[in-house]
Design goal:
Length: about 325
């Protein structure tokens, strides 16, 4: 396993991390989650990502059970807050009240004394940035949080947050968690360059485009039984990727992956990790064999020439020059 520094900090996280958005506390039984988490750890994964709102707290509970008894110092646990659980007016956003209460609730569900990385799940236009910054800084000073970051924030929002934290002499953020894959590259426009300047790394989700970049879906074929695409509760974000044009590109990319002894999914993860500002790619897993395959992507070696051919395919210009 490869380990990368998280932003300006000195801490190192595994290049492949395990998330539980669609699985922990939802499609997996707790014993299954435990088996996958423990196997991930054996493979060198130390970074486990969750969020308070994932399955309304059940994902955090499942992760807490999975790591119970493991040496806490060996783990890097991440979670998030922003979204509401109820209709209560203050059960949402990044105001001090919600942040403090979210931290306490996440600590309880995870069964731990501190959170390694606490992330703001979205930007909150209704709360002054300085209130958010000072609230999380207080949690850091109390020892309840070690590092903090953002998720799905724009370059301008990240810049404002960093400058505010600096001006108020508060702890600075170290990471941003956006979607990033071969088909979704918005952060290349200005988020990555901004984060490089401000000292934040990316910990990216959906690096496999909801499973499309594993190559399991073929153009003109029905979705495999039991797959995410066949599950109406899980496939709501997949529509943009499930076109014959996109699936044909995936098949062509899969042929390049074979040249390097990689599966299409491993190749897609390595593509994300080619970007130095990406500290970790967050993957999900419903069985141990999936995390075993994905973890191996951290050590993949691919030539610049191959990445150039991938760019031609993605741009629709995949013919020989």
């Amino acid at each position: 396993m490869q380990y990368r520094r998280l932003g300006r900090s000195g801490v190192r996280v595994s290049a492949v991390s395990l998330g539980g958005w669609l699985t922990h506390g939802r499609t997996l039984e707790d014993n299954e989650t435990t088996s996958i988490v423990r196997r991930a750890f054996e493979l060198g994964i130390n970074f486990f990502d969750s969020a308070d709102v994932y399955n309304l707290g059940e994902a955090e509970k499942a992760l807490g059970l999975a790591v119970k008894g493991m040496r806490r110092e060996d783990l890097f646990l991440a979670t998030k807050c922003f979204f509401p659980f109820t209709d209560a007016p203050n059960d949402r956003g990044l105001n001090r009240k919600h942040i403090v209460e979210s931290v306490e609730n996440s600590l309880r569900r995870l069964g731990t004394d501190y959170i390694d990385l606490f992330q703001f799940h979205r930007f909150d236009p209704d709360t002054p940035v300085e209130e958010t910054v000072r609230a999380v800084d207080d949690c850091v000073r109390q020892g309840k949080i070690i590092y903090w970051g953002t998720s799905c924030w724009s370059a301008a929002q990240i810049t404002d947050m960093v400058h505010t934290a600096f001006d108020w002499r508060c702890t600075l953020p170290v990471s941003n968690q956006p979607p990033y894959n071969m088909f979704q590259r918005d952060i290349e426009r200005d988020v990555i360059s901004t984060c490089e300047q401000k000292g934040l790394s990316q910990v990216v989700f959906s690096p496999l485009a909801q499973g499309v970049l594993t190559g399991k879906y073929k153009p003109g074929h029905q979705f495999p039984e039991g797959s995410r695409a066949a599950d109406e509760k899980s496939n709501q974000f997949m529509g943009r990727y499930m076109t014959d044009e996109a699936l044909t590109k995936v098949a062509a990319i899969g042929e390049i992956a074979k040249e390097f002894g990689l599966t299409t999914g491993q190749f897609a993860l390595a593509w994300c990790l080619r970007q130095p500002n990406v500290a970790s790619v967050i993957v999900g897993a419903t069985k141990t064999s999936q995390i075993e395959e994905n973890a191996a992507a951290a050590d993949a070696v691919v030539s610049d020439e191959a990445w150039g051919r991938v760019e031609q395919i993605l741009s629709g210009d995949d013919h020989d020059e």
